[in-house]
Design goal:
This is Chromosome partition protein Smc. Keywords: Coiled coil. InterPro entries: P-loop_NTPase (IPR027417), RecF/RecN/SMC_N (IPR003395). The longest helix is centred in the N-terminal third of the chain and has 108 residues. The radius of gyration is 65 Å and the shape is rod-shaped. The chain contains 20 helices and 14 strands. Helices cover about 65% and strands about 10% of the residues. The chain is of the alpha/beta class and about 750 residues long. Helix 3 crosses helix 17. The strands form three sheets. It has a six-stranded antiparallel beta sheet with strand order 2-1-4-5-6-7. It has a six-stranded mixed beta sheet with strand order 8-11-12-3-13-14, sandwiched between helices. A two-stranded antiparallel sheet has the order 9-10. It has a domain of about 250 residues.
């Protein structure tokens, strides 16, 4: 790698765009370019520009006070500029490093408003990216890439820690220090993240456990509720369909009875029609006809009484069933019922008395009137009983008894009427022997009619009983549906639709206790908010995420610690090797410059406590990478490499302390050390800014020879007034400053200049 060109625009005295092109490496040499010019011409601004584009942040090192000082400030004849830009082009076609790029263009811009940017090959980059890239290319923005005249004495006067920074870059470990510093920062960050994550886990873990228990209860509740729902469906389904089956059976039976009743009623009508025909064909006496009519009326009224008697009993039974379901019945006051029953009973007594003594037509009419009165009383009482019956609940037994007695007496009256009817029949036979046959036929039809009416009566009685039973089933189904509305509000249609097959084989008496046990279990579990599930899910996800993150952080921590340990091994190995070889070169170049003597670097180690004392006293200025390394070594209890001392003994002297050397001796010692570093770990290029200013002519010649020797591996840009240094340059750049305060360049190859001189 070598420096191909530098483009400067708006930087300090270089107002207009200025391009410095450097020769390609040829033969065994990478070349030396000399930049010359009078004091104040701006030639050192070239060194500052290179230092600045490489990322220098110290304005002191750039000979300024604030950032905008590097921007051309203008002059009497030229306006100031709004920005400064320096671009450095590196040719990496030889790929003698691990950078794949063939050409590397590093640029830096600064505007007067303070905005700045770095670019690598036209793309915006961070300073850290540039620093790491330069470290991989074996040079950086500090130390020996750009060596100014002040650095010569500064190396000797620097603290051991400052020399360590210079040495580390020379040892080529800056890249690993940066990586180690990044790893240490990552390690600290990982530990902080682990601590935070662990704190959060400890904070939410009790909540997760509590919510987990609640969710398990909710799951148990759902299982029990599901089992209960399934059992209730079977239970209510079986009950519902059993009741439905009963109602269907009763419906079929009712249809059959209705058919029987219709047949009986048809037979009754047929007999009545035959009697009607017989009546028209018979020539009877007025008395006999009247007697027959009276007889028929008594028979009809007797039948009517029987029907009313039967309906009354059926109605009472139906009202009793419905009253039990509603449990709220209103009726007539008990005294009124008792009074009416008493009146009916008295009428019945009177009816019995007259029936026993009746022998004539008039007496039979009286019996008929009494029967009608009893029937009407029974009908009135029946209508009263149809009203709500809740108020008679306390006297229900007494009313039932009275009503039963009244009905019994009615039945007795009917029986007596039957007896007297027979007696009337005998009396009627005595009226006319001639009509005996007709009478016989008439009474035969009467008996048939009586039989038909009894069949009608029995059919109606069965039908009424069936209606009572249907009322019971319907009431039970209504009650069952109300229960299902409460217990199974969302499954009623399903339950009514079709019972489950296994439910048909189960006993409802066994299912009901099981249902009660499941309900009790639900009560013991208690009510749980379903939002707990969502909260548990969210909290558990957070808990699991943090747990996984902690595990990942542990792995990252182990990997980072392992990487740091590996980097520490690399750093120590390279430092030891660099110290050994640099000391060898240091001794050689020292002897070459001094014609004898010896010099070496001595490592200085300190404890962690001593390091803190030095830092508190502002005597140790290590960068963040070195501090991180030192802190880690101190944490492990290892001695900390604090820096390097320089021991130099010129020929013929016993002096080891460089502080008592003369100015020239210190300068040559520094030059020897710099040359030793360049010999061990050559940078792609080095800028020497008037480092030979303090050397006399003979020492300048020796220094120029050393630079010429080192140019085989390093490209040199030498800013100098010294003829010896100029003589080694292959290209000379002359810097002048015009009246407008702008630096200008003039370049010439040395061999061309020599030809022109000749």
């Amino acid at each position: 790698m070598y420096l191909e060109r530098v483009e400067i625009q708006g930087f300090k005295s270089f107002a207009q765009k200025t391009v410095l092109k450097f020769l390609l490496p040829h033969g065994p040499r990478k070349g030396i370019t000399a930049i010359v010019g009078p004091n104040g011409s701006g030639k050192s601004n070239v060194a500052d520009a290179i230092r600045w584009v490489l990322g220098e942040q110290s304005m002191k090192a750039l000979r300024g006070k604030k950032g905008e000082d590097v921007i051309f400030a203008g002059s009497d004849s030229r306006a100031r500029l709004g920005f400064a830009e320096v671009m450095l082009v590196l040719n990496n076609s030889d790929h003698d490093n691990d950078i794949e790029l063939t050409e590397i263009i590093i640029a830096r811009r600064l505007y007067r408003d303070g905005e700045s940017e770095y670019l690598v090959n036209g793309r915006t980059a961070r300073l850290q990216d540039i620093t790491l890239l330069l470290a991989r290319a074996h040079f950086g923005q500090k130390s020996y890439t750009v060596i100014g005249q002040g650095m010569i004495d500064a190396i000797l006067l620097a603290s051991p820690a400052e020399r360590k920074e210079f040495f580390d870059e020379a040892a080529g470990i800056k890249e690993f220090q940066i990586k180690r510093s990044i790893a240490v920062r990552k390690l600290v960050s990982v530990r902080e993240n682990m601590s935070q994550a662990d704190g959060l886990v400890r904070e939410i873990e009790p909540r997760v456990k509590f919510l987990g228990r609640q969710v398990k209860k909710l799951e148990e509740r759902e299982v029990v509720a599901g089992e209960l729902l399934g059992l209730q469906k079977k239970y209510y389904g079986k009950l519902w369909h059993e009741l439905g089956a009963h109602l269907e059976t009763e419906r079929v039976e009712g249809a059959r009875i209705q058919e029987t009743l219709a047949l009986a009623q048809a037979a009754e009508q047929k007999v009545l029609a035959e009697l009607h025909v017989l009546e028209k064909a018979t020539t009877q006496s007025d008395e006999l006809i009247a007697l027959q009519k009276t007889y028929e009326e008594i028979v009809r009224e007797r039948s009517s009484l029987q029907e009313e008697h039967m309906r009354l009993r059926s109605r009472i039974e139906i009202e009793r069933v419905r009253g039990e379901a509603r449990k709220h019945i209103e009726t007539l006051p008990t005294p009124v019922i008792v009074e009416r029953l008493g009146a009916i009973s008295a009428q019945q007594e009177k009816l019995l008395e007259h029936a026993e003594n009746a022998h004539t037509k008039e007496e039979l009419k009286q019996i008929l009137d009494l029967i009608r009165a009893v029937v009407e009383s029974m009908r009135a009482l029946l209508r009263a009983l149809k009203e709500p019956a809740e108020r008679v609940a306390p006297q229900k037994n007494e009313v039932s008894k009275e009503l039963s007695d009244a009905l019994a007496k009615t039945e007795q009256a009917v029986s007596v009427a039957d007896v007297r009817l027979k007696q009337v029949h005998v009396s009627m036979q005595a009226l006319s022997q001639s009509e005996a046959h007709k009478k016989s036929q008439f009474f035969d039809l009467q008996r048939v009619l009586q039989s038909a009416r009894e069949q009608v009566f029995h059919a109606q009685q069965k039908l009424n009983n069936l209606q009572v039973q249907n009322a019971r089933y319907e009431t039970r189904m209504e009650t069952l549906e109300e229960e299902m509305q409460i217990e199974l509000p969302n499954a009623i249609s399903e339950v009514k639709l079709k019972p489950q097959e296994d439910a048909l084989r189960m006993n409802t008496e066994d299912m009901h206790p099981h249902i009660l046990r499941l309900k009790h279990r639900l009560e013991l579990i208690g009510g749980i908010d379903e939002e707990v599930v969502e909260e548990y899910k969210t909290t558990k996800e957070r808990y699991d995420f943090l747990t996984r993150e902690i595990e990942d952080l542990k792995k990252t921590l182990e990997a980072t610690e392992s990487a740091i340990k590996e980097l520490d091994g690399i750093l120590k190995g390279r430092r030891d090797e660099a110290l050994k070889q640099i000391n060898e070169h240091f001794g050689v170049f020292f002897k070459q410059l001094f014609n004898g003597g010896k010099a070496q670097l001595i490592p200085v180690y300190m404890t962690k406590e001593e390091t803190h004392v030095e830092e508190d006293g502002d005597e140790m200025e290590a960068d963040e990478h070195e501090r991180a390394e030192a802190e880690d070594e101190g944490a492990r209890g290892e001695p900390i490499l604090a820096g390097f001392e320089i021991q130099a003994t010129p020929p013929g002297k016993r002096i080891k302390d460089i502080n008592i050397l003369s100015g020239g001796e210190r300068a040559m010692t520094s030059v020897a050390l710099i040359c030793a570093i360049l010999a061990y770990h050559p940078s792609p290029f080095v800028v020497l800014d008037e480092v030979d200013a303090a050397l006399d002519e003979s020492n300048s010649m020796r220094f120029a020879d050393i630079v010429d020797e080192l140019s085989a591996r390093t490209q040199f840009i030498v800013i100098t007034h010294n003829r010896a240094s100029m003589s080694k340059g292959e290209v000379l750049y002359g810097v002048t400053m015009g009246a407008d305060g702008v630096s200008q360049l003039l370049s010439v190859k040395l061999e061309d200049a020599e030809k022109m001189v000749k």
